[in-house]
From TrEMBL:
Its cofactor is Zn(2+). Residues 7-277 form the Glutamyl/glutaminyl-tRNA synthetase class Ib catalytic domain. This is Glutamyl-Q tRNA(Asp) synthetase. Belongs to the class-I aminoacyl-tRNA synthetase family. GluQ subfamily. It holds the Pfam family tRNA-synt_1c. Its EC number is 6.1.1.-. The gene is gluQRS.
Length: 331
């Protein structure tokens, strides 16, 4: 057993909608990983993209996670020594990290519009979660040229990705090795002043002492960028584990499907939280059958290695085990 509190994990939802079963699966796995190791859990609201986030969603997320039977040791609602636990209240910390990156010569201003980037010859598709690869247009602007452009446009700030390979071992996905330049130089602060997810998440995980990040596999390809930021800021990175997403039979993420399936809907339909927990554990490969269980019941037998490594294809029959009406709807 790890010494009490030496392991620290987190849930980091964005309050831009209600929690759907895909988020709930990642939250349950993160909770089990930390609770099975006697660690501390942090809830952090990632509301940095203020245009997409709303306080009422943050309230619903807290309610829904508690309804499912999850809890946390630190967070916006319970406080703790590493607060604030809401990104919109941590802007000074992001600014300070940005200043250090700037002072180290790791950033440059970019004057391109999204349209310019899309139009750049042969822009290949970038990281799945990040849009097209930035071709590096502004990396070598002369100071005079940058100065001239800054008169008519506020630039975004990009991190100049070093050459070489990034490798890491993911607790679920295994060994990964990628060419650092593959995703292009990425934005750390948008032209409208909003700090990027990549910067904010690294600053927060580092300053909150997070040792273990467990999250959905949609963020696996953001991990190399985050590792580069840890390196540039001189911080020790956490261990990462990315759990497979819930997919429909056509290979689309269930979360993106029209309407999704939210915990709030299941609760309103009269589904018990133990039914949802058992179903999630079954979908993740931790239970042979969707039994009724509480998160506590799963702690003893939890092992990261037991989480399935493949995309979880959710069939209508499987959805029917969650609630009969979901099985029919899909057919
Ligand atoms: N806030 C991100 C999301 O809701 C998750 C960030 C993370 O776990 O690193 O997708
Ligand atoms: Zn540019």
């Amino acid at each position: 057993m790890d010494p009490a509190g030496s392991v620290r994990g987190r849930f980091a939802p964005s309050p831009s909608g209600n929690i759907h079963i895909g988020n709930a699966l990642a939250a349950l796995m993160a909770w089990l990983q930390i609770r099975s190791r006697n660690g501390k859990l942090v809830l952090r609201m990632e509301d940095i993209d203020t245009a997409r986030c709303r306080p009422e969603y943050a309230r619903h997320i807290v309610e829904d996670l508690r309804w499912l039977g999850l809890d946390w040791d630190e967070g916006p609602d319970v406080g703790g020594p590493y607060g604030p636990y809401v990104q919109s209240e941590r802007l000074k910390l992001y600014e300070a990290a940005l200043d250090r990156l700037k002072a180290g010569g790791r950033l440059y201003p970019c004057y391109c519009s999204r349209h310019d980037i899309l139009a750049a010859a042969a822009a290949p598709h970038g990281l799945a979660s990040e849009g097209p690869v930035y071709p590096g247009t502004c990396r070598h602007l002369s100071p005079e040229e940058a100065g001239r452009r800054s008169l008519s446009k506020t630039p975004s700030l990009r991190f100049a990705v070093p050459s070489g390979e990034i490798s890491f071992t993911d607790g679920v996905a295994g060994n990964r090795r990628i060419n650092a330049a593959a995703g292009g130089d990425f934005i750390v602060r948008r032209a409208d002043g909003i700090f990027s997810y990549q910067l904010a998440v690294v600053v927060d995980d580092a300053l909150m002492g997070i040792t273990d990040v467990l999250r959905g596999a949609d963020l696996l390809d953001s991990t190399p960028r985050q590792l580069m930021l840890y390196e540039a800021l001189g911080w020790k990175p956490p261990r990462f584990a990315h759990v497979p997403l819930l997919m429909d039979r056509d290979g689309r993420r269930l979360a993106k499907r029209h309407g999704g399936i939210t915990l709030a809907e299941l609760r309103e339909a009269g589904v018990a939280p133990q039914t949802v927990t058992g179903w999630l554990a079954w979908a993740a490969g931790l239970l042979p059958e969707p039994l009724q269980v509480s998160p506590d019941d799963l702690i003893q037998s939890f092992r990261l290695e037991r989480i399935s490594r493949d995309d979880n294809v959710v069939t209508p029959d499987m959805l029917g085990r969650l609630h009969p009406s979901l099985g029919q709807q899909e057919k």
